[in-house]
Structure formats: C-alpha cells, structure tokens
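> example.struct
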C-alpha cells in the first residue's frame, strides 16, 4: 500500500503505548469520570437516604414531652403518682408546666407549647392529648396512660381535644404535601438548568417563582378539592407550599452557582437526607433524636410542615417563625445567586447592539 503525498501518518506517535499519566488525563477529559463519580455518589446517597429515615423513624422514643398541668392543691397526690408512673412507662420525663386554669393550659396547647394537659378529675386525673399536635406523641401518651392508671390505682380519662381530620388519621398528609413541595421545588430548578439553560438571573428567579405558585396551587387543589384528604385553609396553605417550592428551587440554584454540576449533592443532603426526617411531619419533634429535633425547625422542610400544621389545625395561632425560616433561606439563596451570578453555568450573552447607518 502506497501513501500519497499529504496522507502520511506519523506511525511512531500513534503506535507507542500511552503512559499512565496520559491515560489519566484522557479519562479526566472523558464523560466517564463524572459517570463513575455519580455511580458512587448515588450508591452513597441511597444508603444515607435509607439510614437517615430509619434513624429518625424506625424506633421513635420520647425524651421530654411538654405537658401542661392544671395546678390545684387537691390534685397533688394523684398527679404525683400518675406522673411518676408515666415517666417510668415512657422511660422519659414529662416536662411539666403549671397553669392556674384549664383555659390557660388549653391555650398553651393551641399555641403548640404543650402536647397534653393533665388535671384532676374527681379522685382521678384527666389527660387531654392533641392528635393534631403530633399523632405519634398522642398515641404514645394515650397507650401509656391506659396502662399506668390501673397500675397506680388512679382512675384516668384520656381525651383527644384536637383530633386529626378524618381523611388523615395518621397525620401524614401534611408531611407528604410538604415533601412534594420540597422535592418538586429543587427538581424544577434542575430542569430549568438543563432545558432552559439560557435564562438570565432575573428570568430564572421569575420562572422559579412562577412554577412555585402553580405547583403550590396544584398540590393544595389535589389534596383538598380532588382527593378530599384534607380541609385546607386554601389560600394560606397554597402560599406556604409556594414559598416552600420557591425556597427549595433557590437553594439548588445557590448551590449550582457555588458548585456547578455537583449542586445536587448538598441540595439532596440538606433538603432530603437531613431536612425531611427532622421536619416533625412523620414523627413529632419530641420523639426524634434530640439533635434532629433541635435543627429540624430551622430547615426549610421543618418550617414548611410547621407552618402548614398550624394553618390547618391551629387557625388563629399562626407563628412568624416558620415563615421567617423559609424567607431567610430564600433571601440567602437569592443573594448568593445574584452576587455570584457570573459563576452560574446558565445565562446567555447579551445581544450585540445593532449597527448604526453611519457605521455601515
């Protein structure tokens, strides 16, 4: 075979065996490096996902259960015997706070400072639990009280003064709608970064806000109007879901600005691995491991569940704190994105100015 002029191939350069540094350099330039990294990241994420939920929910145990006590001199003997028996049965302490009247104690439950009310009832005691404050806590207290009463010789009456809605007997529906808002919130931002990469910063924020408003409406409408699982204060619940979705979307956008294509790792870690198990939605905060119970209310999923929970079951007692948490995460995320927007992998170049007639 004859080589024509101009078709000569430098056989020596192509024929030699590559060195390991050359193999590594070629591997780093190929799509195989991120694919291999993702393979291990996804495996670790799967294990951590299962571990975080199992750690928080597999065996919930109480530490300190805030309990209101209506203090009267006549109630002291049976209160003491019953409380000692309850703490022994629960292997935890009831964090007792005295109130002069039942009305004051009941208001503390509505404010979600207390999870139960204990007061004298004839020669026995009455334990009022609030299923809406936490189904798992109410169930645990009720079951323990029905065992402790006969064991201590104290007649016990258990009532649920704030029951859950019929369509949500386990109290999980609010957790699931909040979970949907969190996950779709950052998945939407991911999809914008893939399919609408050319959006400039103001446009990207505007579209995240737009899909948050539409998505929040859709979640609330399905849960309430279509399935009838919950009777929602519609506008308030819608706005909470929309704020949750916007916050979640902007958290991913912030990490995308700081970390580029690996932004999913911290987003997933913060919002799903840490935020959802500690939100208090599936297991009430008093039953969570103490660290999770403390940090959960400061993270977007916990703030969302907290605000939604109060809106649905404790109307008129809404707190500013969960909204400030969500607004704070949104503000920080928007600020980081805006200040370092030149690092964000999206956007497009400004259109060149049209040439003037004098320049042609």
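> example.seq
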């Amino acid at each position: 075979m004859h080589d024509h002029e101009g078709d000569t191939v430098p056989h020596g350069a192509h024929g030699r065996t590559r060195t390991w540094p050359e193999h590594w350099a070629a591997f780093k330039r190929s799509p195989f490096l991120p694919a291999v990294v993702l393979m291990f990241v996804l495996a670790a994420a799967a294990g951590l996902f299962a571990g975080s939920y199992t750690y928080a929910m597999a065996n919930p145990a109480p530490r300190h259960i805030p309990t209101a006590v209506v203090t009267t001199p006549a109630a002291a003997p049976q209160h003491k015997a019953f409380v000692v028996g309850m703490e022994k049965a629960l292997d935890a302490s009831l964090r007792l706070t005295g109130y002069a009247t039942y009305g004051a104690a009941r208001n503390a439950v509505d404010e979600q400072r207390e999870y139960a009310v204990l007061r004298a009832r004839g020669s026995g005691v009455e334990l009022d639990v609030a299923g809406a404050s936490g189904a798992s806590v109410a169930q645990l207290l009720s079951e323990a009280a029905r065992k402790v009463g006969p064991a201590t010789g104290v007649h016990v009456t258990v009532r649920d003064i704030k029951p859950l809605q019929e369509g949500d007997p386990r109290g999980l529906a609010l957790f699931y709608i909040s979970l949907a808002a969190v996950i779709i919130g950052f998945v939407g931002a991911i999809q914008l970064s893939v399919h609408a990469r050319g959006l400039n910063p103001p446009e990207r924020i505007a579209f995240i806000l737009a899909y948050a408003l539409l998505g929040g409406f859709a979640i609330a409408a399905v849960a309430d109007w279509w399935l009838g699982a919950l009777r929602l204060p519609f506008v308030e619940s819608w706005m909470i879901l929309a704020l949750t979705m916007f916050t979640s979307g902007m958290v991913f956008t912030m990490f995308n600005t700081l970390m580029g294509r690996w932004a999913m790792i911290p987003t997933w870690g913060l919002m799903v691995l840490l935020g959802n198990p500690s939100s208090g939605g599936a297991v009430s905060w008093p039953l969570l491991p103490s660290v999770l119970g403390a940090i959960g209310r400061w993270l977007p999923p916990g703030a969302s569940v907290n605000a939604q929970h109060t809106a649905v079951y404790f109307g008129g007692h809404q707190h500013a704190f969960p909204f400030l948490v969500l607004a704070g995460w949104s503000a920080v995320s928007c600020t980081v994105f805006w200040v370092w927007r030149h690092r964000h992998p999206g956007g497009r170049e400004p259109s060149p100015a049209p040439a003037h007639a004098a320049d042609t």
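> remarks
The chain has 13 helices and five strands.
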